[in-house]
Design a protein that fits this description.
heterodimer; A: seven-stranded mixed β-sheet; 15 helices; 11 strands; B: 3 helices
């Protein structure tokens, strides 16, 4: 008797292999005369009425040469990009918790439908206010939501990223002190080492001297060091809370009071507020400004480096310094107010990225106030489950206080590296063999052999268990067969690149087709 | 076009295959297909075992049992049928 064979997929460590297509660069697919769409010639009647379509354009704006684009059939272009997509480990393919601090939560696809609807995508920022009342209403109402969530008084959605928000806030700090005649005297901004590196970077761009506070032995920013740092030179204090360690500073209100007493402005990096929604607010913690990255906490796509939105809120006394225009309601109508006395000027064209604003608004309205609070609760629960499990993996640890963490944790493989020689970079490559994205964390490089996980509210226990099982498996490999981990990846489109300084030397890489041809020719000449 | 299909009835032509490029494919596409067939023909003459034991680069490898699809007891097309048939060996 023969029976059907049962499929066994019980194992949590996935038996995965990435596709490999050996696909040429799209420019190499160029074939003169090939077309994606062949258009019929323009009918005479149309030409008679509107001309040839080109002569209406001012001569100085007409290209002298056609753009150097590859000529390829529609069929082949489609095949090209489908193939390349199989060679990626995109956010929708994997349990995307390995890029902690970035809050890679799931973006509901229905919000993409709203954003790509012609009602949204065909709007133009130069349209008259009366013709874009719907979009202005969405911006105004998202402003109201953000006020409720943060306690701030006014919001702008103009900044295109978190870093641009931080730059905007540093600009507002400078404009505020200049308006008060203290612009030259107040030339220092205080931050902490585990806040995002953009905080110090953007303040430095605005000409500020940066004072960086290091944590105490438990991982909290040191309040005594803050007391010693403030003076009549203090322009502002910028901090994330929780910081990248996932540790929440419960004395934050004392920090902001110390800075206020010295005459400084306190601004809050809430790019990632995933553990805080509905639990605590910037205003009650004593801040004068804050921003949220809509592409983190509010579920809009990260879009490979943008365009995105930093929703930036300020208290009433800083309103006049904001980048304009602001959306205001007048009777039943919405209008743009660009009449801000001390405005720092625009930080991005028009009103930022309205599609992102629409997605975030839809997300907030779908969840409601209680839903937002649930997001924070589940994100923190998921994170602490993960935290507990990771601490049980041989060779893994999390520096600083062992109490609860908020929405993410910066971990360390220091012990594993000491015991086996396997580093966090090796583990990053080996995780790709099990279809997981894993990232070895950004600056500051204070925690040895770091990794930062952030499960968000999007993932199930089964998802987290799979990720944990893969890390546990790799730890075991490191202790029993370290070469296997060091030589990973084995199942990816490309294997380990021998030349490890590839990315450090610009002579070895290129980001455009033109630069590729130039560098490839140079190599050929040298070789011949 | 990425797969060779061994053709349907009538089975008069021995070891058949039927190709049909339509108007959709470029010469480069056809040349790629032809090159792959030539490579396999060459392998068949030089080292037929390589071809016998394919596929090597697919999601699943060659199944040991070749009559899998001929016996309805060994496969199922619904979840309900899958559950039923996968319980059979346990019941017996």
């Amino acid at each position: 008797m023969v029976y059907m064979q049962k499929i066994n997929r019980d194992h949590k460590v996935r038996n995965y292999h990435q596709a490999k297509w050996d696909e040429p660069i799209i420019f190499e697919l160029h074939k003169s005369g090939e077309r994606g769409v062949t258009l019929p010639p323009v009918e005479e009647e149309i030409t008679n009425n509107v001309g040839d379509g080109v002569s209406a354009i001012p001569m100085e704006m007409v290209r002298k040469k056609t753009p150097n684009l590859p000529e390829i059939s529609q069929n082949r272009v489609l095949r090209h990009y489908l193939r390349l997509s199989q060679e990626t480990l995109g956010a929708a393919f994997n349990v995307e918790i390995g890029q902690g601090t970035c809050t890679m939560k799931y973006s509901p696809k229905i919000n993409e439908m709203f954003a790509s609807s012609p009602k949204m995508s065909e709007l133009h920022p130069l349209q008259d206010e009366s013709t874009v009342q719907g979009m202005l209403e969405v911006m105004y109402k998202l402003d109201l939501c953000m006020r409720e969530i943060s306690g701030m008084d006014y919001f702008t959605f103009q900044p295109g990223s978190g870093t641009q928000s931080l730059f905007t806030m540093a600009s507002i700090v400078r404009a505020y002190h200049e308006a008060n005649g203290e612009g030259e005297q107040r030339n220092e901004i205080i931050t902490t080492i585990f806040s995002h590196p953009s905080q110090a970077a953007t303040a430095a761009v605005k000409g500020y001297k940066i004072i960086t506070l290091y944590p105490d032995q438990d991982g909290f920013p040191d309040i005594e060091k803050l007391k010693a740092a403030v003076s009549e030179r203090t322009a502002g204090f910028v901090v994330a809370n929780p910081e990248d360690t996932g540790i929440y500073n419960p004395r934050i209100k004392e920090f902001t009071k110390i800075v206020h007493d010295a005459g400084g402005i306190c601004y809050y990096d809430q790019a990632n507020a995933n553990g805080l929604l509905g639990i605590t607010r910037a205003k009650e913690a004593g801040f004068d400004m804050c921003f949220f990255n809509l592409h983190k906490t509010f579920s809009t796509p990260h879009a490979s480096g943008g365009p995105a939105t930093g929703a930036l809120g300020v208290v009433d006394k800083l309103k006049e310094f904001m980048p304009g225009p602001l959306v205001e309601k007048q009777g039943e109508n919405y209008r743009l107010n660009d009449n801000l006395k001390h405005s720092i000027g625009k930080v991005r064209s028009f009103q930022g990225v309205p599609q992102t604003v629409l997605r975030a608004y839809a997300w907030i309205r779908a969840l409601g106030a209680e839903g937002l609070k649930d997001v924070a609760k589940i994100a923190v629960l998921n994170n602490n489950y993960l935290y507990h499990k990771i601490l049980n993996i041989q060779g893994a640890d999390a520096p600083y206080i062992k109490g609860k963490r908020l929405e993410q944790v910066r971990y360390s493989w220091e012990q594993l590296t000491k015991d086996t020689g396997v580093t966090t970079d090796d583990i990053s490559r080996r995780m790709a063999d099990f279809a997981h994205h894993y990232w070895s964390s950004h600056h500051p490089f204070v925690v040895p052999e770091p990794f930062t996980l952030e499960p968000t509210e999007s993932l199930s226990k089964a998802d987290l268990d799979e990720y944990i099982a893969s890390l546990t498996h790799i730890s075991h490999e490191a202790y029993t067969n370290p070469e296997k981990v060091k030589n990973a990846p084995h199942n990816s489109t490309i294997h380990r690149v021998d030349d490890q300084d590839y990315f450090e030397n610009p002579e070895k890489w290129c980001i455009t087709w033109r630069s590729y041809l130039k560098k490839a020719n140079k190599t050929e000449k040298i070789n011949s | 076009m990425d797969q060779v299909w061994t053709s349907h009835h009538p089975y008069i032509v021995p070891q058949p295959f039927t190709l049909k490029p339509t108007e959709s494919y470029s010469k480069a596409d056809l040349d790629e297909y032809i090159a792959a067939l030539e490579q396999i023909s060459k392998e068949a003459y030089e080292n037929p075992e390589i071809v016998h034991n394919t596929p090597y680069n697919s999601t699943i490898h060659k199944l040991d049992k070749q009559d899998f699809l001929d016996n309805p007891k060994e496969w199922c097309i619904t979840w309900r049928s899958y559950q039923k048939k996968s319980m059979l060996p346990e019941l017996i």
